[in-house]
Design a protein that fits this description.
Blueprint (H helix, E strand, L loop, with lengths): L2 H25 L3 H12 L6 H6 L5 H10 L13 H17 L1 H25 L12
Helix pairs in contact: 1-2, 1-6, 2-6, 5-6
């Protein structure tokens, strides 16, 4: 496994714990906060399942091994991993936070996850051109 892939995957497991610690210090930790942070941190990667549908993997385990050991899957067009999604989330964050604290935390966790992915792609792959939307969904 490449060092960049290892650091990328490790950062996604550390992110929810870091957010939980930072937000929990200010407000206290409850079950809704934990659910909001963990769902928001891991939901953006659900679009990687589109790669599983388009390629032939023996089983889900071989797909996960491919994602954990390869950075080629990050070059594909993914529903959440693009600039319009980040902009939409950034615009909706203040509104969602005013409506419901936990919804705001959920969106913040998604933004942090996508920002980490963008940084990883910029440094490890030396490009972020696949974040631009060139075709309709």
């Amino acid at each position: 496994m490449k060092l960049s892939t290892l650091l990328h995957n490790l950062s996604h497991f550390i992110l929810p714990l870091l957010l939980l610690e930072l937000i929990g210090l200010k407000r206290g930790i409850d079950i809704y906060l934990i659910i909001s942070i963990f769902l928001g941190s891991f939901l953006p990667d659900i679009d990687h399942l589109s790669i599983w549908a388009t390629r032939r993997f023996k089983n889900f385990r071989s797909f996960l091994k491919y994602c954990f050991t390869s950075d080629r899957y990050r070059r594909a067009f993914l529903l959440f991993h693009n600039f319009p999604t980040i902009i939409a989330l950034l615009i909706s964050l203040p509104i969602a936070s005013l409506m419901n604290f936990y919804l705001g935390v959920f969106i913040l966790a998604m933004i942090c996850h996508l920002f980490l992915d963008f940084l990883a792609d910029s440094f490890a792959l030396k490009t972020h051109s696949h974040w631009k939307v060139r075709k309709r969904i």
